[in-house]
Amino acid sequence: MYDWGYELEPGILFVPFSSVAVSGPAIWGLYLLIKERLRTKQRKIKQQLNYWILGTTIALGISAYTELFNLDGQGRFLFVPLSPAAISIQAFFIFVAITRYGFLNISLERIAVELFRDIHDGIILTKENHEFFFANQAAIAILDGSPSREGLFKPEWHFANYREEQDHIPRDYQLIGHSALQFIELTVSEIKITENESGTLYLLRDITEKKAAQEKIHQLYSQIVNDLEIARVTQASIITQKFPDKGSYRIHSFFQPIDKVGGDMLRVIEHPGERVDILFADVSGHGIASAMVGGMLSIAFQIISEKKLSPKESLFEIHEMLSKVVLHHHISAVYASFYPQENRVRFSYAGHHPMLVFRGGKIYPLEGEGRILLAVKELHLNDYHFDLLSSDRLLFYSDGLYEVKNDLGEIFGYDEFLDWIQGMADRDTRSLLEAAHRKALEFGNGKHNDDLAMLALEIGP
């Protein structure tokens, strides 16, 4: 039982085993302190640990010597063991460390490391008066080095045009001292470090790629806006806005696209002494693509109008010309040729709703049939004619006037539109067009979901 020895007759294993039993916990604690001292980068924490390590080393040495080696041949102490004095010495060093450098700094840093080491965003903690306390590896990588200078961290050293703000809203800053442009989203908030001490938490997020993407989007958006403006001017140039003012007839129009450009198209070409060709069309869709198709349609109309074909033949020609280049749009249209000397209008429909004739305070739809252009290869079109009288008015109008929706998603409706415009039949042509425009906007609560276009041919008295 006593083979390893005891105080009076110590064996060869007595001192080692006694050292482990008596000094083991203290030695392990000293190892942890030294390990922490080597790991931490905080100057003040290192100084605090120096006191702890020194006090623990002195206390361990005094206690071990006086307890294990302070014996005579009879196993009696040569002098009084100094373990209580050693504990007092260690307590003194701990007291000095706490008094000079604060309480629980070591554990707080360890907690911060555990909390923030795996976060990809940069984390920086400071105490009051910008005293640097902690930074994770992400923050060090973002700032390309230690955030602190002489134990302090001030945001204005790293972020251009930094200003202290009262709120906690994330703000974007450019990093200072970097050769390449680098942008950081910085969030600043107050944090409680101890019961009696507050600090500041800085959250850093690298948004350089996000900024570059935003800049590209902004440039692309600016280019699109510029292209839309060019498209708007181009469309305005191909839509007839000035019409021949003859004694025998007058033409009025109104056009408002849903965006800067639209898919509705109206053109008038006069062949003096013979006839006036009118093309009123609606290209499917909206925006630049529809406007481009509308531009091609305008060019095709100008070319074909010179041939002075019948309306049916003209629509056939337009279909054949555009079907080779327009693949994803279709066109509803009405092609009308007005002969002033006869007051006769010849017309053909391609999937378009009827024109309206205003006569004697009443309206008369000019019915007709015809397949939509570019939707199917084989067209079915017809030629029609109608004789106009003095003071008659012939109205072309887009479906946007009666397909407008209100806030509940309800559509105004074609029959309702006819009933409404019947009540406006006595108005002059210009006020009639303006009233129809206002009606569509009123029903849509100031909005319209399609292009609005109207053209009126007014026969003189």
UniProtKB/TrEMBL annotation:
<keyword id="KW-0812">Transmembrane</keyword>
<feature type="domain" description="PPM-type phosphatase">
    <location>
        <begin position="244"/>
        <end position="459"/>
    </location>
</feature>
<dbReference type="InterPro" id="IPR001932">
    <property type="entry name" value="PPM-type_phosphatase-like_dom"/>
</dbReference>
<keyword id="KW-0472">Membrane</keyword>
<dbReference type="Pfam" id="PF07228">
    <property type="entry name" value="SpoIIE"/>
</dbReference>
<dbReference type="InterPro" id="IPR036457">
    <property type="entry name" value="PPM-type-like_dom_sf"/>
</dbReference>
<feature type="transmembrane region" description="Helical">
    <location>
        <begin position="49"/>
        <end position="66"/>
    </location>
</feature>
<dbReference type="InterPro" id="IPR052016">
    <property type="entry name" value="Bact_Sigma-Reg"/>
</dbReference>
<protein>
    <submittedName>
        <fullName>Stage II sporulation protein E</fullName>
    </submittedName>
</protein>
<keyword id="KW-0378">Hydrolase</keyword>
<feature type="transmembrane region" description="Helical">
    <location>
        <begin position="12"/>
        <end position="34"/>
    </location>
</feature>
<dbReference type="GO" id="GO:0016791">
    <property type="term" value="F:phosphatase activity"/>
</dbReference>
<dbReference type="InterPro" id="IPR035965">
    <property type="entry name" value="PAS-like_dom_sf"/>
</dbReference>
<keyword id="KW-1133">Transmembrane helix</keyword>
<feature type="transmembrane region" description="Helical">
    <location>
        <begin position="78"/>
        <end position="98"/>
    </location>
</feature>
